[in-house]
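A quick word before the example. In earlier lectures we treated sequence and structure as two separate objects. From today on, think of them as two lines of the same record. Here is Bud site selection protein RAX2 written that way.
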Amino acid sequence: MIIDNKPYIYNFQNSSLVQLKNWNNIKGDIKSFYYDEDLKSFYFGGSISFNDTHGIVQYDYQEEQLLSLPFGGFNENSTINSIVQLEGSSDLILAGSFNSIGYVELLNITLNETETNTTSYRNQTGVIDISQSIPILSQDVSASVGENAQDIICPVTGNNGWLLSNGELGTWSASLQTKVRPSKIRLYNSNSENTSVNTFRIITYPANGIMNMTYIDPYDLQEKHCDAFCPLFTHNYVENGFKNNSIRNNQYYKFTNDNQTIMELTDVFQDFAFVNPIEVESFSVEIMNYHGSNAELAGVELYGMGISVFANNSLNLGNSCSSSGGYHISVNSESLSGMFWKSGGSGGFQYSEVPSNQVSNNKGISYDINIPVSGKYSVLMNTPGCSQDSSCGSRGKVNVTLYDSFGGLLSQNFVYQTNEYEKYDVLYTGNLDTGTQPVRVEMSLVEDSENPDPLYVVAQSIQLQYLQLELNEVFGNHTKKYNKLVNQTIGLNGIFEYSASNFTKHIRNPIGNTTINQIGSIFEHGATINQVLYNETGVILAGDFNSSYGNGILGWKINSTDYFTIDKGEFDSVSQIYGPLNEFIIAGESSLYSKAEVYESNTGRNENLNVSNSQPITDLSGFTFNGSEYVVIGHSNSSEIMDFTASRLFSNSTTFGMNVLSSLDSNRKDWMIDEYVDTSYIIGTILKFDLAANNIVESTSRGLSPVNITTSRFTAGAFIDSHRYAIAGSNIFLISNNKSFPLFEHYELDNTQVDTMIFNGSDLVIAFNGSATLNSRNITGLAYYNLDSSQLITLNQTFSGSLKKLTVDPELGATIGVGSFSVGDCSTICFFGNESDHLYVKKSVPNISGTINDAEYFNFHNILLGGNFTNKNEDFGYIGVYDTQEDEVRMMKNYSSQLPGPITSFNFVDETTNNKTLDDLIVVSGENYVGYFNGSKWTSLVNGLDVSHGSISSLSILNSTLSSFHQNKVILLTGDLAIDGYGNVTSAVYDGTKWTPYAMFATNLKVSDARAQNIVRLSPIHVFSGNFTSPIPSSSPSSIPTSNSDIQNKTKNFTNGQVVGVGFGLAVATLMLIAGFGFLLVAFTNREEEKIEGLKLIGEDRTYHNQQMMDVVDPDEIINPNVKKG
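And the structure line, produced from the sequence above:
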């Protein structure tokens, strides 16, 4: 986050805030940032400068140091307003106001541009023949009989062929200029059916053997074999075969010899492939039979395996035939730098003798090969042996360089020519593509002091062997594409694509003229881009710019040059955008006011949000809460919130309020470090409550509901029966079936309130902390109201102070009152009796001073007292036992000494047990602490619970089916509490392991203004029962039975049962109710705020039995999470 124009890292785990180091070296304002998780680096953009670079800076998070970017930042006075990452890439889009970079020379690049070659490589048949034609010279042709034998080396349709006389069979022969490995022979039969060849054989020399051949049978188009009697089909037979097999254009072909030979069949010629290619110096075609009167052969062509180019260029020229329009593989060789070559012996090699003072790296010979198709090749250099010309002592080495068809260097090798016998060297094995120029091999001399003088150099041939060709290039309407080098300058105008991985020594042009870098060219000069909205399909650019596609905002489709116009309404420029691409918010600023609109790109519709503010819109940010998306429209010192899901401005309600300045959206990853979290964070507060009520809410088995009553304040309550309870506030009300009935027609309090109430028999016992008027009757301190007779009686003695707790004395049938008060001669603890028309002090306990906050008659003649008091012996303490027989208070010093302070409340965990002991579990709370006694051992339970800045209002023990503190019991507290990991809460439950939030209250959406004042158990109070006329066991504390089990044994077994729950009060809530005899139903869980040092956490994955704490949880899921609802 950016605070006072400085970057800070906020750790959500430990709530720490750390400023980035060395930031004093940065000047200017930060306007954007992005965190690259792979590089562990921040990018900060804005009107900033660092180390003579401008606009942007990198911060290495691990090394804690600032870095300039490798392209030198941007031009002076530049600003980077937006930094986003391209989807599926590490590249960044940097947008703002700039027109160049710091190292401007990086914008001058050399590109390989792809262009289409318009020259077609097709022959007349539409098939490129991958076999190289072997030249046959007329002087090397002979025939045993017949005429026109030399004419058939250049077959032309309609011309006369080699014609034999009637009844003759003959042999046609040709000698080759050099040894070759033929791949196939192509024969042209006579144009006349009456003089056509029927069968033939091929004989090669020096092997002097009949060759095994393969061919295509026109009848079934299958590849077949022959040797001594190979069929040569007539034109009509071939045409009929094509017709029967539905072959168009009278052409058919197959690949053979491991796809290194194309064998063709047409109505003009037929190819016969050599099954076992061997080296051949000469060959013969021997006619074995013919159709009609005599035999005639119209043409002969021989093709070799792979491609060969000879140093003697005369061997590369081919026949002196007029072009037939077919494709021929073109090869050529020529001398380099005028080097003079002579013809050698057999094999057609060349040689040269070069004096040592004339040896130059520029001299040598070059070989050019126009490869027919792309594919994988092996390039070989053949070198004749030195033994055949006795040159072994005069030879040396040559430098051989191979270039591809685009001029790129493929290999460079030194080749030694001192071999005694003929050899070949592999120059390269790999892919070769057809391109704009031939594949070129240059053999050059090597300037070496160890060269013999003169240096004897030889050159024979280069051979390209086919390994795996791109067969799709052999046929169809194929056009070739090639690259050419083009010098170009990249122009920038407000947008730039940065790829950190490109800035290595191995990449010549780290900045490319990408589609993104070209976007600036559609803007007028001086464009400013304020924000970029991006996903995998498109980009929205917003700012202050003009273009033919729109001003201020436009869209662009990824991987294309398709731009689309977006209606920006009446804005002159767009300062902010937010949202998905199909629907987003546009914020702009006119001369009078700031404005925001919703734009739906799928319909092209604008909707005015009616946001009018004299301050500019400085920020648009979003967050998700309870399934709805909200957008914060920020100004310099205020904000407005839009419910983006509902497409309307948000306004606070009674139960839902937000005050949000900005947010960190989980949909944006630029602010997250090290890991992705599916969470929205906001700066501000959010309060979301489930229920609105006026001070009181009732939770019963029927669910949670507010009590229909209007009063300013409630302070106490009492259970009457299963249909009624009483609540004290501005009057004393009877509540029945959610309807309220005031007990008194005239009810006046003189700075007085009801502190506590109980119901006993038919009487509602009411304790006031002063005087009051009820139905014109003056009340002082304590009153009995009989619900059956409506009789009201009160004390006839002066009362002052406050009664903290009322309970029933089973011995005297009196009401025991404790607190900080005095009435007559009695104080602190009194037993009250009643006559027909008044109350009186039936028994007093002498010499007790201080405050007693809680009391319980727990065993024969024993009342447990808790507070801050002293006895007649002036023993001071927080806890003691009043012995009604001995009429004295014994202070439990061992207990008191372990407590942090005065007791405000205590509860026996097994509260319904009649004869309790001091070794029973007793939960004790003070204003700022809670814990329990197990025997005389005190254990604090404040771990995870913070009450140091608040207070505990009330304590209760409830039944539970969940993990429990002891025997299906949990502890419930109310007050001003805080729980670790959750923040402030109004009530909390302890289940034996941890404290869990239970309910929240607020007044006008302010939690700090509300308080859960009391818990009222809607069940009869427990009264000790016993036969006081029978012999009574000793009542001294030391004689009370002691349990042999400890807390671990008591809490290890959890059983199912009912749960006692807490109501949920809102608005001006001060009172919670608990209903049921020994049980209640929980109807809600916490959905409120959590504050982390100024940051508001929304929807964090903080679960309670797999339920998010920010969501409403069904009651049964809290009561019994193991039971699945149907």
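Notice the following. The first strand starts at residue 2 and ends at 3. We will return to this example when we discuss secondary structure assignment.
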